[in-house]
Specification:
Number of strands of chain C: 4
Strand content of chain B: under 5%
Oligomer: heterotrimer
CATH topology of chain B: Methane Monooxygenase Hydroxylase, Chain G, domain 1
Helix content of chain C: 55-70%
Distance between the termini of chain B: 50 Å
Shape of chain C: globular
Largest sheet of chain C: 2 strands, antiparallel
Order of helices and strands of chain B: HHHH
Number of domains of chain B: 1
Order of helices and strands of chain C: HHHEEHHHHEEHHHHHHHHH
CATH superfamily of chain B: NADH:ubiquinone/plastoquinone oxidoreductase, chain 3
């Protein structure tokens, strides 16, 4: 299957410029989030390239892991830093931009010619054999037999990633343990702490006069329920007597 | 497996894209336009929008951790898929190596859990 | 004829065109129908009629709503990032539609003289396409929240993206078991793998009768299905996991600043995503388009009828979505994230290992391999940090233990005096 299909050529010539535009846009965009979006375009195009080159699984993985997960991480980081985190255009080293551009173009040229020279007279063989039982199965056979050590080492890499993220991003709650509902309630009712809003005339009150103290749950009057600006005076006998609502209308 | 099986996906993608772009582009022309400065402000239930701090405000770093853990598990899942598909072919050896892999990732997971990385306040 | 992977990619261009259009129309109609269906069902659950004005049974209500949205003013907030604000709903829509491309509707039929499977297409990594699309769909949400330049959308977008990536992990893990049983990732072959029925005989003690169960993975892989169902609800941001749109906290979440057709696109994408995860559940766990109890060659599973079976199964799945919304209150965000990370994911991994052990022991006729995961589980349980159970102290002792000067509490044997008002009412009644 060394012959390139027409569909492959068409896809390539549509997506390759898109991928390059995405890469350029990523470099040139002022806004960091726009940069990330351009990069997503490039990654997506790469994913489709893999699929076109008879590697559907790796193509989907490219889209799921790189475009989906890793770019999402980038986007999160950009948002952590702040909304309009734009590049500063001031050069720290004089002539840095020009030299950087030149070196970048030079590297691209070197790599392009190198790869071109290396693959010019290459006849591609073995795709049929590799995908004989299906792409995914073929891949599984390789990963889980020949490359099993690399596969197991990947898990160590994943541990590193998780631990690194924890060390960088996790804030240990310094000393203060999270207080639960029960502990909070106990603390609230400890001596020296007034547990609630000032008691108003509640269910235990027999009068709704502002001068009548509210009663605490155990029956004692609460001094706090009376406004301090009210003048203190003795009640008359009639005032002191139980209200008719309490005596049953007698 | 030829590429022609992918053509319908591209077709649906293009149709959906055309539909979406058309809707978004057409919306300003179909609807009415009545200028009102308050409409163009950020919506905050009717009060004056709070001025955003320079840089647009920042986020809890917590989300970074979630995204990182997502990547870790995503990669684990990606390895699980080909393993699951050719499970019968790989036999006992495949089973054992995947158990080792899962346990190793589980160590990272337990570490994050015990350090409180999975707790949200 | 049950299609296999080899049957795809052979259609003539106009058949492809017809199928693409058909899937597109199916999704749009399904969305309109689902909105009506949801409103009617939830209304019935809340003892009210629901929309019943436009068209028969109010069926045209959502069409009217959609048209109304088109004629609303399109507002672009001043602080919005113009371009990103513009493309975010398009991203959501494209991802929602594209994911449905691999959904199998039925067997091979004859369409205008062409033999073609009733499925847009199928690829060796079909299920991954759905995952990729749902992964990319998150960008629509997070970008719309960011681009609005407003507080509520930003919070809503971030919340929902964190929620979706968390539940995507659970979802991705839950379908591993399906791949293990079927040995493929292509949807048509997964449907095919569930085509057989198996004979189960009840032990003699219970009567010894036998019955046939369809080889649906919901029966064989129940834990996977439960996890899939839960994470599908989380993935689609539906009640009780609709935290990004928690009205009381974040107004509308990521789409607060959107209006007119842009808002309609988000709405469309949300409902299509619901249809997609339901369709995937039907395909992966409920035998796809096949009618249970009949062989693949039976007339009931031939021709165009399976489309009906598929749609019915889809509607039942959607009904459960609505039922959940009508029943459960919204979760708190920390509880929700804890559930995803600390319950669904470890349970899923353990289940995969156990299943793999059982399958290996079946393949090698050696029970040892089934014992290994169980032993690992026991070992894990042994080392699991246990919570000390608090000793129950009687109320009297708890009261007596309170330090002096604590806020007074009523005596335990307190008899609350009858409210004076209550007494007056009884007195009046006696007079009458």
């Amino acid at each position: 299957m060394s012959a390139v299909q027409t569909g492959e050529i068409i896809t390539f010539f549509i997506l390759a410029p898109l991928a390059v535009i995405g890469a350029l846009g990523m470099v040139l965009a002022r806004n960091a989030v726009h940069s990330a979006l351009w990069l997503i375009l490039t990654m997506l195009s790469l994913g489709v390239f893999y699929i076109v080159q008879a590697g559907p699984f790796i193509g989907m993985v490219q889209i799921i892991v790189y475009t989906g997960a890793i770019m999402m991480l980038f986007l999160f980081v950009l948002m952590l830093v702040g909304r309009d985190a734009s590049d500063s255009v001031i050069e720290t080293l004089r002539g840095q931009k020009v030299v950087g551009t030149l070196l970048g173009v030079g590297l691209a040229g070197l790599m392009a010619t190198g790869i071109y020279q290396a693959t010019r007279d290459y006849t591609v063989v073995g795709l049929e054999a590799a995908n004989k039982d299906g792409n995914v199965q073929g891949l599984a056979k390789l990963i889980f037999t020949n490359y099993v050590f690399a596969f197991e080492v990947t898990s160590a890499l994943l541990i590193t990633a998780a631990v690194g993220a924890m060390i960088l991003a996790h804030q240990e709650k310094s000393g203060v343990k999270a207080v639960g509902q029960v502990a909070k309630m106990r603390e609230r009712f400890l001596p020296g702490n007034y547990p609630g809003p000032k008691p108003g005339p509640g269910v235990f009150a027999t009068s709704n006069s502002v001068a009548t103290p509210a009663k605490l749950p155990d029956g004692n009057p609460s001094q706090r329920s009376i406004s301090p600006i009210l003048p203190t005076r003795e009640l008359t006998a009639a005032e002191k007597a139980d209200k008719p609502t309490l005596t049953g209308g007698a | 497996m030829s590429l022609s099986a992918y053509v319908p996906i591209v077709g649906l993608f293009a149709l959906a894209g055309a539909f979406g772009l058309f809707s978004v582009a057409a919306a300003p022309f179909i609807g009415p336009r009545r200028f009102n400065r308050a409409k163009l402000d950020a919506y905050e239930c009717g009060i004056e929008p709070t001025p955003q701090p320079i840089g647009g405000g920042r986020f809890p770093v917590k989300f970074y951790l979630t995204a990182m853990l997502f990547i870790v598990f995503d990669i684990e899942i990606i390895f699980l898929y080909p393993w699951a598909v050719s499970f019968n072919m790989l036999g006992v050896f495949g089973f054992v190596e995947m158990v080792i892999f899962i346990i190793t990732v589980f160590i990272a997971y337990t570490y994050v859990w015990r350090r409180g990385g999975l707790d949200w306040d | 004829m049950m299609p296999t992977l080899a049957d795809f990619g052979k259609d003539v261009w106009w058949i492809v065109l017809i199928k693409v259009l058909a899937v597109f129309v199916f999704l749009v109609v399904m969305t309109l129908f689902t909105i009506w269906y949801e409103r009617r069902v939830v209304a019935r659950m809340q003892v009210r009629p629901g929309p019943n004005r436009n068209g028969p049974f109010g069926l045209l209500q959502s069409l009217a709503d959609g048209l109304k949205l088109a004629f609303k003013e399109d507002i672009m907030p001043l602080k919005a990032d113009k371009v990103v604000f513009f493309i975010a709903p398009v991203i959501s829509t494209i991802c929602a539609f594209t994911a449905f491309a691999i959904m199998p509707f039925g067997p091979i039929v004859s369409l205008f003289g062409q033999k073609t499977p009733l499925q847009l297409t199928d690829i060796p990594v079909a299920v991954l396409l759905v995952l990729a699309c749902s992964g990319l769909g998150i960008y629509g949400i997070v970008l719309s929240g960011w681009a609005s330049g407003s507080t509520y959308p930003l919070l809503g977008g971030l919340r929902s993206s964190a929620q979706m990536i968390s539940y995507e992990v659970a979802m991705g893990l839950s379908i591993v078991a399906v791949f293990m049983m079927s040995g493929t990732m292509s949807t048509s072959e997964i449907v095919k793998a569930q085509a057989e029925s198996s004979q189960t005989t009840v032990p003699d003690v219970l009567g010894g009768w036998s019955f046939t169960t369809p080889n649906w993975y919901v029966v064989l892989l129940l834990p996977s299905f439960i996890i899939y169902a839960i994470s599908a609800v989380g993935e689609t941001n539906r009640a009780p996991f609709d935290l990004p749109e928690a009205e009381s906290e974040l107004v509308g979440g990521f789409h607060t600043e959107y209006s007119s057709l842009k808002f309609a696109l988000f709405f469309l994408a949300e409902y299509i995503n619901m249809v997609t995860v339901s369709g995937l559940a039907v395909t992966l766990f409920f035998g796809g388009w096949r009618f249970p109890g009949f062989g693949p060659e039976h007339a009931i599973n031939q021709g165009w009828l399976p489309v009906l079976w598929f749609t019915i199964k889809l509607l039942i799945a959607l009904f459960i979505f609505v039922w959940l919304r009508g029943t459960l209150p919204r979760l708190r965000y920390d509880q929700f994230m804890r559930f995803g990370w600390k319950v669904l994911i470890p349970a899923n991994l353990v289940w995969i290992v156990v299943l793999a052990g059982i399958k290996t022991s079946q393949n090698t006729d050696n029970l040892l391999w089934a014992i290994i995961p169980v032993a690992l589980l026991l070992l894990g349980a042994l080392f699991w940090p246990s919570k000390k159970k608090a000793v129950e102290v009687p109320m009297e002792k708890q009261v007596a233990k309170r330090p002096a000067g604590s806020y007074p509490v009523p005596p335990i044997d307190l008899e609350v005096p009858v409210s004076p008002r209550a007494r007056r009412i009884t007195a009046e009644r006696e007079v009458v």
